[in-house]
Amino acid sequence: MKPLFALVVLVVALLLACGCTGTATEEAFDWFNRVVTSGKVKRKIEIKPMKTSSRSYAGGTGTTLRIANGDPARTIVHELGHSLEELDQKVWSASRKFYAERTKKDKIESLAKLTGKRGYGSEKTKKDKFLHPYMGKWETDATGQQAYTELVSMGLEELYVDPVRLLEKDPEYFKWIVEVIHGVTA
Ligand SMILES: [Zn+2]
Questions:
Q1: What spacing in Å lies between the alpha carbon of 80 and ligand 1's midpoint?
Q2: Hey, where are the domains in the chain?
Q3: 104/99 Cα distance (integer angstroms)
């Protein structure tokens, strides 16, 4: 490849990559701000990009989202769900309560075994009748207490991608996540 042509290809590739992430971020924040009306997440949430194919996550007690370059808006919506649970104590209480109710008859199981995906490593879940076993992910902190849930993040992602599917397949979860985004009162 001629150097000039190679440079043009590189510049176009960089522009496309940046454009995709920028658009996805704008779309995710726009949707989140319109849909989540609880008004509790007022602190600035910062996006820090990572290289393509990294696993995106919410860090810094919910105020920093590490997003892999090229990840779609649904992933950013998902991570904003973690921020919401982390930053709003009422949402966190509601998550723990809903989790306990839904999984009271479930045992802790391996996500890798349940899904056949070795990428989950040693991650655990209580699968309930969730649409995806990841929704019941069981994560503890150093003291053995529940650290966070995937209920708000996965619920928001479902609302973003296919709300009708969630309503039809798991109306109880649908009702719960809609209450959460309108601002839980107890
Ligand atoms: Zn998550």
A1: 9
A2: 3-181
A3: 8
